[in-house]
UniProtKB/TrEMBL annotation:
Belongs to the iron/ascorbate-dependent oxidoreductase family. InterPro entries: IPNS-like_FE2OG_OXY (IPR044861), IPNS-like_sf (IPR027443). It comes from Arachis hypogaea (Peanut). SUPFAM superfamilies: Clavaminate synthase-like. Residues 216-308 form the Isopenicillin N synthase-like Fe(2+) 2OG dioxygenase domain. The keyword Transcription does not apply. It comes from the Eukaryota. The keyword Oxidoreductase applies. Keywords: Iron, Metal-binding, Oxidoreductase. This is Isopenicillin N synthase-like Fe(2+) 2OG dioxygenase domain-containing protein.
């Protein structure tokens, strides 16, 4: 199954005062795709292929740096919420969540995820995007950034790509709100001053390039919406709301959006957090061979950004979602508290 591709250009060009029936229908398509598949492909004229390439080039160079160099940029006492997270630190939810494990066993064999045998084999770098609140109860989730030595272009490249992806998410969040029958700013007003994180991952396919290797085990994202540029190596599988497993193919020039747990909370379970994994597939192996022939880097970089609800804002079903039959499963909870609870489960909290 191919995910729908939504071109954001008509919405960006439209008068904010009044939406045409065509644009209202487009907003409906956005909300429907997020509800039914937990994912959406978008084309944003402000995010170019060259922007994505420049970002991935720099991150390949960083991830292939020596391990002791990268370890200088770890901040475990800040829950790894800035700087680098080494491989074998982040634990996939499916490894520690017994309820999730039971659900996986009940899935048809062809839809079951690959079973992770330990922590994820990917590295990750967290870089904050956008302003942070001057007053917050959640200082660690809003910490100062870490800049690696010898990367003079780092800040400009990270900020430029991160801000463009946040801008794309904000448009999708507005369109989704309209499609869900909420106020246009229902989501974006809660995102203001959120702890948004540009969070590229790096997986060493020279070391972990064998077919079937799990780079990131089956999990959901704890944030609001996640956005990725196209990776140079395939391997992302997602699960639709009906339980069907789909290998994602991102067309050139498109961005992939996935639903996180915070949008599930705000819609009272109408729109659920999308499950996904990253695995070395036969298509990944083919891409590795091509990269070797072309003498390119064998680090699989994802240009991922996590858009969050502000830490001090309250997560609760919005508007008519209060009447949802599942709404009682989503009691009011401070977004920062929710994030800290999740980080404790996946081993990114409490490490010194």
């Amino acid at each position: 199954m191919d995910l729908p591709v939504v071109d954001l250009s008509p919405y960006l060009a439209a008068s904010p005062a009044q939406l045409s029936p065509e644009l209202t229908a487009l907003c409906g398509e956005v909300s429907r795709s997020l509800r039914e598949t937990g994912a959406l492909l978008v084309k944003d004229p402000r995010c170019s292929i060259e922007d994505n390439d420049r970002f991935i080039d720099m991150m390949e160079r960083y991830f292939q740096s020596p391990q002791d160099f990268k370890q200088r940029h770890e901040r475990p006492y800040l829950h790894y919420q800035v700087g680098v997270t080494p491989e074998k630190v982040e634990v996939p939810r499916s490894l520690v969540d017994e309820e999730m494990q039971e659900k996986l066993k009940a899935m048809p064999k062809e839809y079951q995820p690959h079973a992770p045998v330990g922590p994820d084999l990917k590295w990750r770098y967290f870089w904050r995007i956008g302003p942070r609140p001057s007053n917050t109860r959640f200082k660690e989730l809003n910490a100062e950034p870490v800049i690696p030595e010898g990367f003079s272009e780092w800040k400009e490249t990270m900020d430029s790509w991160g801000n463009k992806m946040i801008a794309a998410i904000e448009v999708v969040a507005e369109m989704a709100a309209i499609g869900f029958g909420l106020q246009k700013d229902a989501f974006t007003s809660l995102m203001k001053l959120g702890p948004h994180l540009l969070a590229p991952t790096g997986s060493d396919l020279q070391k972990y390039g064998q077919e079937g290797t799990v780079l990131a085990g089956y999990h959901y994202d704890l944030n609001f919406l996640t956005i990725h540029g196209k990776s140079r190596f395939p391997g992302l599988n997602i699960w639709l709301k009906n339980g069907q497993k789909v290998e994602v193919k991102v067309p050139l020039g498109c961005l992939l959006i996935q639903t996180g747990k915070q949008i599930e909370w705000l819609t009272g379970g109408d729109c659920i957090a999308g499950m996904h994994e990253v695995v070395v597939t036969n298509r990944t192996v083919e891409a590795i061979r091509t990269a070797e022939e072309q003498k390119r880097s064998l680090w699989r970089v994802s240009s991922t950004l996590f858009a969050h609800i502000a830490s001090d804002a309250v997560l609760k079903p919005l508007g008519h979602f209060v009447e949802s039959p599942l709404a009682s499963k989503y009691p009011p909870l401070c977004a920062g508290e929710y994030v800290e609870q999740e980080l404790a489960v996946i081993n990114l909290k409490g490490q010194k």
